[in-house]
Design goal:
heterodimer, A: globular, B: mainly beta, four-stranded antiparallel beta sheet, about 0% helix
């Protein structure tokens, strides 16, 4: 079993749809959680950090459930420009970051 | 402009010919790390460095070396490249010394070993 698991998708949704991604992690000592976005094999870029209380940034909402060891990302009112691969990142200690394999999203007109 | 710079961006080489991929950051970050990305395997950590002269293995360190003589530079060395090291490589640095903050990535280096 992988340390960090994501549904690879692909998710194909129409513009305006709401889509949710989940990510589970196996290390209960994990401390920091992030969602990154990656376009066409370019470098990943931070989308959101994920906090225990949940956090929102415009159309994006991230949540963390430590008891069940999963994090989620909700995208509302999807735009064509949201098409990308979304990577879940979990950090258990100061040095080591573990990435999920990514979930591919395609938003269609 | 704050950035992480990798070179070369693209390289085709042959088995056994030593090569170095350089990584430099201008943000005075203490933490730096190397990853490789392969289809179906995601991003995997090769080595990381918490500070100058402090390096440690990630998940896939075999066949790689690193050094951290200066804070801004963290080169990745392939002493004897093999075809299974054909991959897309990313260098990243972190703002906070504890390594818990946002990872800033370089643009990537696409390496092909024939």
């Amino acid at each position: 079993r992988k340390e960090v698991e994501q549904d690879p998708g692909p998710f194909n949704v129409p513009e305006g749809a709401t889509v949710a991604f989940n990510c589970t992690y196996s290390n209960s000592a994990s401390q920091s959680f992030f969602w990154y976005r990656q376009d066409c094999r370019k470098e990943p870029k931070l989308l959101m950090s994920v906090y225990s209380s949940g956090n929102e940034d415009g159309r994006f909402t991230a949540q963390l459930n430590r008891a069940s060891q999963y994090i989620s990302l909700l995208i509302r009112d999807s735009k064509l420009s949201d098409s990308a691969t979304y990577l879940c990142v979990v950090r258990a200690n100061a040095g080591k970051s573990t990435f999920g394999d990514g979930t591919t999203l395609t938003v269609k007109p | 402009e704050a950035q992480v710079t990798q070179n070369p961006r693209y390289l085709i080489t042959v088995t056994g010919k030593k090569l170095t991929v350089t990584c430099s950051q201008n943000m005075n970050h203490e933490y730096m790390s190397w990853y490789r990305q392969d289809p179906g395997l995601g991003l995997r950590q090769i080595y990381y460095s918490m500070n100058v002269e402090v390096t440690d293995k990630g998940d896939v360190p075999e066949g790689y070396k690193v050094s951290r003589k200066e804070k801004r530079n963290f080169p990745l060395i392939l002493e004897s490249p093999s075809p299974n090291q054909t991959s897309l490589y990313f260098c990243a640095s972190v703002k906070q010394g504890t390594g818990t903050g946002e990872l800033f990535f370089g643009e990537g280096s696409r390496l092909t070993v024939l």
